[in-house]
Amino acid sequence: MFQGALVGAPSRLLLLSCLLAPSAGHAQSAPSAGTTPFVLDGNRTYARLAFVGADGSNHDALAFVDMGSATSTVAVSLRDALGIGEKQPLAFRVGAMMVQVPAAAVTVEPGKPYSVGSDLNVEAMLAAGLLQKYQVIIDYGRKTLTLAEPGSTTPEGIGVAFKINEETGLIAVDVAVDGKSYAATIDNGSA
User: Fold this and answer.
1) Which DSSP string corresponds to 14-66?
2) Which site from 1, 6, 73, 157 is most exposed, i.e. has the minimal number of CB atoms within 10 Å?
3) Contact (CB, 8 A) for 63 and 95
4) CATH number of the domain enclosing 107
5) Residue-wise pLDDT tens digits, 117-173
6) What is the H or E stretch that residue 106 is in?
7) Which pTM does this prediction carry?
8) Is 148 part of a structural domain of the chain?
């Protein structure tokens, strides 16, 4: 289990600094960070991303941001719209930053685009397996999601020790309530 620090301003900013070694699962090109708006619906976060087709075209779509899932998914209709094959990486932009996910790390969901507990047209899911490769800032006040290469942003707030399950990506912190200590899981994908 990886251990790190969770920092953030009270009730508005969540920064996960999972400083793992850079991997081949994402592009190493500039810029090193990108920010995109998100929709908060049913207490869940849906990021607005620009998926990149095989021909270089953009396909704007909502992606469910779920820190409790190990594998990212795309709807088969999104894969087909992008014109990418089963062995091609999935590419999308978070703001100006390009992210590439190896085909082996993406599950294709059959059928129409799916929604998790709402009527939004959600075509993908960003899972913890992808997110833990970046510094992740979820700013609920501004309704923005930022992904940044490890070490490229300076954390704000007070650091809090946490444990991360590298298989699922779930983060656990110890909290005190009325003098008693409890383990709490942080999962923005849970309603």
Assistant:
1) EEEE--PPP-TTS--PSPSEEEEEEEEETTEEEEEEEEE-TTS-EEEEEEEEE
2) 1
3) no
4) 2.40.70
5) 778 999 999 988 888 889 999 999 999 999 999 989 888 888 889 888 877 777 889
6) strand 106-109
7) 0.77
8) yes
